[in-house]
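Notes from hallway chat w/ T.B., transcribed later so I don't forget. T.B. wanted the structure written out for a chain they're using in a teaching module, and asked if we could keep both sequence and structure tokens in one place. Agreed to drop them here.
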Amino acid sequence: LFARQNPNHYRFMFMTPAKFEHLKELSDPGQQSFQRLLAAVEAARAKGLLRPVDPMLVSQVLWARLDGAVSLLVTYRPEQFPCAAPPADFVEQTCENALRGFLVEPAGAAPRPARA
């Protein structure tokens, strides 16, 4: 995970306010990344994998959850988390949890088990 290996780079790249007015001919890298996420969400929705929810909303929720989890990991030491250090798969579980709320449950499917 880039952020864990390079926390200062992550803070600078994603947690520092930036202005891109001087880059009129180039697209903001954050916008490019978000557009890729939005395209993936739109494709999943087109395949019937997601509930009929606005793809922009789904993309913004996923982006916020991922950025929030990673920001916590680069901001706090493990012992600063409430009650216990975050598990090794903290980011993965955060993403899965956020995405699960938008997934369509196949007819007759058993509920997904919670991850331990």
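Follow-up for T.B.: Residues 26 and 36 are 16 Å apart (CA to CA). Might be a good example for the class.
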